[in-house]
Design goal:
This protein has helices spanning 31-41, 44-64, 78-82, 86-97, 110-115, 117-129, 161-169, 171-183; strands at 2-5, 12-17, 21-23, 27-29, 71-75, 104-109, 133-139, 156-159. With 188 residues, the protein is an alpha/beta fold. The model has no long low-confidence stretch (mean pLDDT 87).
């Protein structure tokens, strides 16, 4: 779990569940290597569901031990997001774990969201109806229009590192995107 911090205060405002593979012979294998293999083989649905279940159970356990409720973010692959049973699977995980829906955030990349905007709207609406938070991951990589930010039921954006690097050369661009996101009520 990687903590998510509020820039202004430094307080932990959430966690992101990150999956890693430690192979007994090859050592640590990066997600950039094994996730595409899992997607190609169809195993991403099993892995993704396991990650979501594990994160939801762990957050519930921490809450039961007295830690304040916070958000745990889980990344979804394009294959997971396009699975028509995703909302039902998520609801089952929430029910089984006892985690309040507003403590789970699903993260999707811009590319996934913009692939089929009609289907995206339908799926996001179904997920939002469950009470989940939805965030755009790797925002600023060039796949979406800023105009979509107010049309999709999202709670926040996570700026891509390459986009943040632009800030050094053109600080007004980053400031404008952050300002627009905040104006729309999104976390950045």
């Amino acid at each position: 779990y990687q903590p998510q911090l509020a820039v202004a205060s430094g307080a932990v405002v959430g966690l992101e569940a990150l999956v890693r593979w430690h192979h007994p012979e090859l050592g640590m294998i990066s997600p950039g290597e094994f996730i595409p293999l899992a997607e190609a083989s169809g195993q991403i649905l099993v892995i993704g569901e396991w990650v979501m279940k594990t994160a939801a159970r762990q957050m519930r356990q921490w809450m039961d031990r007295g830690l304040p409720p916070t958000v745990v973010a889980v990344n979804l692959s394009a294959i997971q997001f396009r699975d028509p049973t995703l909302p039902e699977r998520v609801q089952a995980i929430l029910t089984e774990s006892g985690l309040p829906p507003d403590c789970l955030e699903l993260e999707l990349t811009e590319r996934v969201l913009m692939d089929d905007i009609h289907a995206t709207r339908q799926t996001l609406s179904r997920l939002k109806a469950l009470g989940l938070r939805i965030a755009i991951d790797d925002f600023g990589t060039g796949y979406s229009s800023l105009s979509w930010l107010h049309e999709l039921p999202i709670a926040g954006i996570k700026l891509d590192r390459s986009f943040v690097a632009v800030e050094r050369r053109h600080p007004a661009i980053l400031a404008a995107v952050v300002s627009l996101a905040r104006e729309l009520g999104l976390t950045v």
